[in-house]
Amino acid sequence: MTGWTEYLLAWACFLGAHMIPALPGPRGWLVARLGRRGYLAGFSLLSIGLLYWLIVAAGRAPYVHLWDQPLWSRWLVNIAMPLAILVGALGAGLSGLVAAFALWAGAHLVANGDLAHAILFGGMGVFALSGLARSGLPRAFRVTWRRVLLAVVIWAALLHLHPLVIGVSPLPL
């Protein structure tokens, strides 16, 4: 299955995986059976897997050109991503992660000028901004050398694995 059908199915699964557990019944049931840590670990792994599928499905969808991708837009992504990762790693609570996703989505939206990726990053931006509207911006940051080191390692891993995992180099050169 490829094309728009796979892309729509990936979106439906991603949104369903985030909306259903947000309801009090399913989340409570899952936490009662898996424990809080087990639930969070399982939800995190599922979210990462579905996000990856969504990104790959966007790449397989038919290409519909919307705007050109100037070189500066890749620089924007390469400047925004370390900041997004720092916010996610240092922000206290879930709002740091949601703010990081908003930065990620906004920068990638500018740098990707086709319909499927505009829907992907625009949709993720709306999803993240709605989360920020509910939770607010991070109120505190936990700056420790371990968190900063973790952010640097995550950034380096994403930068170097992007061509292998996503299929496109993020470097502007």
UniProtKB/TrEMBL annotation:
Domain NnrU, chain residue ranges per copy: 8-170
Subcellular location: Membrane
Keyword match Protein biosynthesis: no
Keyword entries, A-Z: Membrane, Transmembrane, Transmembrane helix
Protein's membrane topology: Multi-pass membrane protein
Residue ranges of the TM segments: 38-63, 75-103, 115-136, 148-168
UniProt keyword Transmembrane, yes or no: yes
Classification via InterPro entries: NnrU_dom
Pfam families: NnrU
Entry's Gene Ontology cellular component terms: membrane
Entry protein name: NnrU family protein
Organism: Paracoccus lichenicola
